Amino acid sequence: MAQDTLDTSLNFEFWLNKAVAWGQATTLESQQDVCLHLPQLQKFLQQIYETLKHMDFHTAIQRFPLIGQLLGRLCWNPFVIGYDENQKILMWCLCCLYCSEPWNTIELEVNIWIRSLLCHLLSSSKLGLNEVGTVSQALGYTSPDYYPKLLKNVSTLLSIKISIVKHRINRKAMSLLCIPLLTLPDILPLLEALLTYQGDESKEILCSEFLEGVNESFLQKKIALSESAVLSLWLRHLPSLEKATLHLFENLISRHRNASPEEMECFIKDSLLPQAACHPSIFRIVDEIFWNALLETNGTSEVLTVIQVFTRCFVQAFQKNNDQLKFPLKSYFPYTSPSLIMVLLQNPKDLPRGLWCQHLNHISEILKKIVEDQSTQSCRSLFEHWFLFIHFGEWADIAAEELLMLRAESPATLLWLLAFYYNPHDQNQQRTQTMVAHGHIMKLFGRTPLSVKDLQDVTDTRHPRIQRLIRHLLLNFLLLSPDGYKIAQEFIITQTDEIASELLNLIARITYRWNRLGVETQRPAKLAKDLLQELQCYTMKSEFL
Amino acid sequence: MEVLLEQLERFAEVLAVSRTRHASSWGRVAVRRSLCWARYLRHVHGRFRLRGPVRAALEGRLRRLRLRPAPLGGDAAPAAPCPESGPPLSFEGLGCGEQLLALGLLENASLPSPALHELLQRLRPEGPAEPSEEGLGNRLAELARRRAASQLLRPLLGSGPAQPDPVLRRTEAELLLLRLRQEAEAEPGAEALLLDRLWQQLPQPRWLAVVAEALLLPPAPGPRGAACAPDEDDPGSPSDLGPAPAAPLLAWLLSRPAPLAALCRLLPAPLLASLAGRHADLAEACLDLLWDWAGHLHFDLTKGAWVGSDPEGLTWERLRDCFRCFCQAPAPLSLQARIALDSCRARDGGFEAPGLSVWTDLERELGVEEPPGEG
C-alpha cells in the first residue's frame, strides 16, 4: 500500500509535466507523444480515482495539491479525452472533488471551476466557437442530439474523401488522429477507408502506431473490421500479422487447452487468418510461425492438431474464394513437388471409403520416391515435404485406422507412411521395428481376456523413437476392437500426464474426423466420446491435486 | 395508465424548468426525484417505442402539453417556445431524457450546490445509484468522447473559418428535418409555423444554406420495416424519416414569396441548379421568378449593358449565371431552361439584334443554339 502511494506521487509529477508539455496537442510532436502514452495514462488516472473516491475536497488537495492543474490540462486535450475511458475517469474525479456544501470562497470557486470544466467536456452551448451552429440552437437541440450526428457525418465525409485519389487529404495525419478513437464505433467507416485505400506511394503512409493499435483492438474484439480491411492491414504491416498469428496460437494452445477440434475450427475461422492466408505472402508467414512452433515443441500432438485444423480451414477458404486472383497452389508451397500437393489436397470426403487405402498407397509412393531421391539433396527439402504432409496429417490418421481395420492390402506401405509422419528421418532402421510393433498389436486382437498388462507390454519397447507411432496404433486398436474398448479407460489412466493428454488429443482428432466425414461408427464413436469426457474430468482433477 | 400520463406531464415540466432560473429552488430531493422520473420514462420509451396504443396515448398527451401555455409564472414565455428550455418533449426525447436533464442541470448556473452535488454523485460508479441507473455516467462520457472526436477530425475536412462547413450544414439539415417531422407528428401545420419563426430568427445566408442542404439530402432507402427498431443512440436518423422527408419544407418554400426570392437571389448558382434539378416544382417557381425579375431590367445605352432599376434586385450577371447553370444541368432541367428561354424570347418579339430584348442577349451570351425544327 505504501509502495502504491509512493508510486502515485512520483508519477503525479511525471504526468503533470507531460500534461503541461502536451498543451492542447496541437503540434505533431505533442500528438505523437500523447498517443504513445495513452494506455499508461489511463492506468494512472484509474489509480488516482481509486485514491480520490474516498476523499473529499480538502483531503484531496492535501494529498495532491496540484490535482486541479492536472485535471484541467488533461480535459483540454482532445487526444486524452477521445481515448477509451479517459473521459469517464476524469469526469468521476471531478465529481469527487465537488463540494456539496461550500463554506468559503475557495470551495465556491472550486465548484464553479468544476462545473465549467464538466460543461466544457459535455456540452456544446458554452463553447461559443461556432461549434454548435445557431441553427441547431434555434431548433432547440443540444449535445446528445447533435454530436452523434455530427461525428457520423464527419466520418462519412472523410471516408469518402479518402477514397478519392485527387483529394489532397493528409492520410498520415488522419491515421495519427484516429489512434485515440479506435474503439469508437462511429469511426469504423473511416478506419476501413484508411486501411483499404491503395495509393501509389511506395512507402507505407499510415503511421505504424495506428496500424498496431487497429490490430490490437481487432484481436481483443473491440472493433469489428471487415475481412478486406483486415487483409489490407496484415498485408501492409508485418508485425500485425505476426502478432495475430501468435495470438491465435496462444489462444489455442494455452488458454483453451482442452478445446475440441470443432471449437478450434471456430476460433480459427473467427480470427480471419485462413481467409487472409489465401494471399500467398500471408500464408508463408503464418506457415513459418507454425514451423517454428513445431520445432520448439518437438512436434507435440496439440501443435500437429492445430496445423491440421488450420489447413482444413484454409483449404475451405481457398476453394470458396471467388476472386479472380486465385493463386496457383505452388505459390503456397513453393519448395515441394506439385504432384504431392495435389494428392494430399484430395479431401477424403470426396472419395468413397473403399478407395482410401488406394489413395494412401499413392501418397506413400510419391513420398517415398521423393524421400529416396533426397539422398544427394539437402535435408531441408526432406523437411519441407514432411511439413507439407503434416498439414494434411488427416491422411496419416486414416492410415492408422485402415491398418487396424485390416483393410490394407499392403500394410507395409501404410506403416511406412505412418512412420514417416512421426520420424521423417532414419527410415531404414525403423522399418523393421515398426513392423514388429505392428505385429504385436495385431496379435492383441485375438487375445481374450485382454489385460492392461498386455497393452503395457506392447508399449514397453526398447525403441523410444517409435513410441508415438505405437501409441497411435494402440489407441486405434482400443477404440475399434470389441475387447479393447473395455479396458481403454483403465489403460489410459496408468499413463503419465503427458502421454494421457497426447492420447486424449488423438481421440479428439479421431472423433472430429469421424463427424466430419460422416463415418458410421456407432460404438467406437460413443466410446470415444465417453472416454474424452471422463478422462478430461480426471486430468483436470489430477491437475488440482 | 393515467398515472403514467401524469408522470409524463410532470417530467416535461421538470425538464423545462431545469434550464431556467426557477431551478434555484431545487434541492437534493428534487434532483433525485426528477432523475428517477427520467429513468422510468426511459424504460417506458424502450418498452413501447415500436408503436402500439400506449405510445399513441403518450404522444397525444405530449401534443396537448405543447399547446398549453408554459406554467412559468411572471416571465412566461410568449407563444413561441423559449429556446433555452429546449424543444418540446417528444416521445423520442424520452429515450435520452436523463441526459437532457443532466445537461440542463449542469449548464444551469442557478442550480444550488447541494443539488448539483446530488447529480454528480450519481454519475460515479459508486454513487448512491440503483443498478439500472449506472448508464447515465457512461452515456455522458460517450458524449464527451464523441465531442473530442469531432474536434480532432473536423479540421481534416479543410474548411477554414471563412468557408461554410459542409459537415455542420449537413448535420443541421438533418436536425431540421428531424424537427419538422416531430412537429408534423405533433400537429399538422405546425411545421410551417416553425419554419416561419426560423426564417425571422436566423441570418438569411445561413438559413438558406441549411434549407438547400436539407432539400438535397439523399432520399431514404425505403421506409424501414416496423421490425427494425431505430438506433437508440440516434433516434430519427434520416433513414427512418420515410420517403419524402423534405416535402413540408418544399411546400413551405413554394408558398412563401420572401424566402423563395431570397433563395433565388442569394444562393450560389450551381447550388440553385442542383436544387432545381432535384425538385421540379422548385425549378418552375425559380424560372417564373427569374422571368418576372428580368422584366425589370432595361438596356442602358451609355453603359452598353442591361441594368436593373433596383440596386438590390436582380442583376444581369445573376440572371446569366443562373441560366448558365440551369442549361448545363442534366435533363430535364436543361431542357426546361432552354424552352423557357425560347418562349420568353418569342414573347418579347423574337428579336435578333442585341439590346432589344434581355432574352435575346441572354441566349446569345450563353451560346444557346436554336433547337432544330425552329426558325
TrEMBL record, chain A:
Cellular component terms per the entry's GO annotation: Fanconi anaemia nuclear complex
GO BP terms, alphabetized: cellular response to oxidative stress; interstrand cross-link repair; nucleotide-excision repair
Protein known as: FA complementation group C
Source organism (scientific name): Sarcophilus harrisii
Gene: FANCC
